Amino acid sequence: MSSRRPLVAGNWKMNKTGVEAREHIARVQALLGDGEQPADVAVCAPFTALEAAVRAASGSAIQVYAQAVHEAPSGARTGEISAGMIVATGARGTLVGHSERRAACETDAQVAARVRAARDAGLDVIVCVGESLEQREAGETEAWLDGQVRAALSQVRPDEVGAIAIAYEPIWAIGTGRTATPETAQEACAQVRAVAGATLDPEALRVIYGGSVTPDNARELMVQPDIDGALVGGASLDPESFAAIVAAALCRVP
Q1: Percent of the chain with pLDDT strictly greater than 70
Q2: Is the dihedral of CA 211, 214, 217, 221 positive or negative?
Q3: Could you give the residue numbers annotated as active site?
Q4: In 3-state terms, the chain is what percent helix, strand and coil (to 5)?
Q5: Is 168 within 8 Å of 189 (Cβ atoms)?
Q6: SS3 of 177, please?
């Protein structure tokens, strides 16, 4: 059994106001209870709800992450948020390179720069990688993941392994109700770990799976040797479902 502590993160995407964030976190915390959790637990809130989420999570086991970050510290970049702005909310970390951001033209070079900017500000990072259905069917998954992982970690130092997690999220399984089989997810996460091993200690690096994770499939995914948790989309919007996915991480506890 791996000694890596699992990570379960809920990505709310464009959902929840500040008031809704407070109510949601209070409910999740009540469901999780005050005892030791089987995983590190995070919620990735929209920028407008970050401060409210941080206040609501204070003193609990729940960490708060942003959903994206810009590489520049300031400037004429309407609608963007800097790492310093995220830090000022009290948030612990940020997602970088989510497929929905990449689809909006976030490049590998930008992902690398944004990972570096987040780390320089002291933020933890969950960096997302994954292939489309077309790429998988064309037999390009391995090359695609190799390129994304190498690019994302190109400015990361080996001693930062504890602050980095990589989320493998097959684009064809995000929001579609279609989930990679445990064997398919394991194969991809093992590859991500092997490629990342050129930069970071592969035995310390957390690799998590994202793509229509639910309470029904969470355990069979997380029991795989190279899957150290989950990046949860739609199911994270329901407190009961999200808490059940956190509980499924017990399968990873030695």
Answers
A1: 99
A2: positive
A3: 98, 169
A4: 45, 15, 40
A5: yes
A6: coil
What residue ranges do the domains of the chain occupy?
7-252
Tell the CATH superfamily of the 7-252 domain: Aldolase class I (3.20.20.70)
pTM, two decimals, is: 0.96
Q: Are 166 and 196 in contact (CB under 8 A)?
A: yes
Handedness of CA 145, 149, 150, 151 (dihedral sign): positive
Q: What is the pLDDT of residues 193-213, one digit of tens each?
A: 999 999 999 999 999 999 889
How many residues are present in the chain? 254
Residue 149 has pLDDT above 80, yes or no: yes
Q: Quick one: CA dihedral 224, 227, 233, 235, positive or negative?
A: positive
Q: Is 116 in contact with 82 (CB distance < 8 Å)? A: no
* Structural element, H or E, at residue 221: helix 218-222
What rounded mean pLDDT belongs to the chain? 95
Cα 123 to Cα 6: distance, rounded to the nearest angstrom: 18
